[in-house]
């Protein structure tokens, strides 16, 4: 690490000596930082904000076009949006499965309150599967 500092110090001194000997003001000093002015920073921020706004408008336009295309397809094939709830026979099976899940959760919470019994847990799981698949 010290060699890096020594090297940069020697290069700086060397550049100064060459500049003094040649009298040339065009020697580029690599160690000199060219800070960016605050005006440039503000202009860049404004440019980025404008580009971001433009991008948002463009994406909104594209999304609207996509939604219009989706709606045309839905109209053509008489489809419903995924957001709309379905009132078909599947809702009955969904209600039944939800009731089974509630029962399982209740049984699980009851099992947590009781001592751990793997045989009871296996039997409960088997009974649940029997109900689900209609086995007797």
From TrEMBL:
Highest taxon, organism lineage: Eukaryota
State where composition is biased (Polar residues): 86-122
Q: Where is the composition biased (Basic and acidic residues)?
A: 50-85
Pfam families named among the record's database cross-references: Synaphin
What are the UniProt keywords, alphabetically?
Answer: Exocytosis, Neurotransmitter transport, Transport
Per the record, the GO terms for biological process are: exocytosis; neurotransmitter transport
Matches recorded under InterPro entries: Synaphin
Q: Name one GO molecular function term.
A: syntaxin binding
One cellular component term from this protein's GO annotations in UniProt: SNARE complex
Please give the Gene3D superfamilies that the UniProt record associates with this protein: Single Helix bin
Region: Disordered, residue numbers: 50-122
State the protein's purpose: Positively regulates a late step in synaptic vesicle exocytosis.
Assigned protein family: Belongs to the complexin/synaphin family.
Instruction: Indicate what this protein is called per its UniProt record.
Output: Uncharacterized protein
Organism placement in taxonomy: Eukaryota, Metazoa, Spiralia, Gnathifera, Rotifera
């Amino acid at each position: 690490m010290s060699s890096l500092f020594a090297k940069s110090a020697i290069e700086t001194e060397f550049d100064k000596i060459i500049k003094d000997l040649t009298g040339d003001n065009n020697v580029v000093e690599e160690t000199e930082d060219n800070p960016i002015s605050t005006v440039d920073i503000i202009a860049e921020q404004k440019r980025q904000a404008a580009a971001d706004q433009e991008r948002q408008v463009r994406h909104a336009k594209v999304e609207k076009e996509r939604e219009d295309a989706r709606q045309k397809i839905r109209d053509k094939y008489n489809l419903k949006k995924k957001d709309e709830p379905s009132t078909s026979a599947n809702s009955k099976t969904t209600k039944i499965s939800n009731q089974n899940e509630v029962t399982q959760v209740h049984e699980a919470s009851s099992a947590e309150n009781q001592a751990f019994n793997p045989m009871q847990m296996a039997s409960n799981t088997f009974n649940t599967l029997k109900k689900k698949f209609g086995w007797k």
